[in-house]
Amino acid sequence: MSTYGYPNPLNQISMFVLLDRLGGAGGPEIPSYIQTSAWAYRAMSTVEARMRLLGLLETRPARHFLPQTGKRAAEFTLPPRGNDHEPFMERGVPVLALYPEDDGAAGEPDDDGGRLDPAAVRDWARIVTGFALEWLDMMEVEPVQARRRAARRER
Length: 155
What we know:
The chain is mostly helical. Helix content is 34%, strand content 5%.
């Protein structure tokens, strides 16, 4: 396997984003766990806030999904152990971990998707897509491509 000039394949990952147990009914708040990726958490929170302001999200939680944008360095603690992002962190990959604080539901027999709220799942898809487009600096490119596809369909 070629690593295209990277010393190891993990060096190709600019950020590992863990999306785990999102989309629950009531839109549980997601904490900012990792200080080194707090900037990315704030960026995704900004995307969520902008989408809510524009009326692009379906859910109306009491607080935003990502409320901890002003968390100070002293307020960060080590994230809970035993999650899927740990092997990446241990190898130096930057990680943005997005999952609700432990509610005891993960791994339980009834943890089968029945707790999901379709509107919240769609909102998370929109938020993560908006974040990824901004991360990739695609916001100006995507609308042009969409217009071109629409113009081709009209022909």
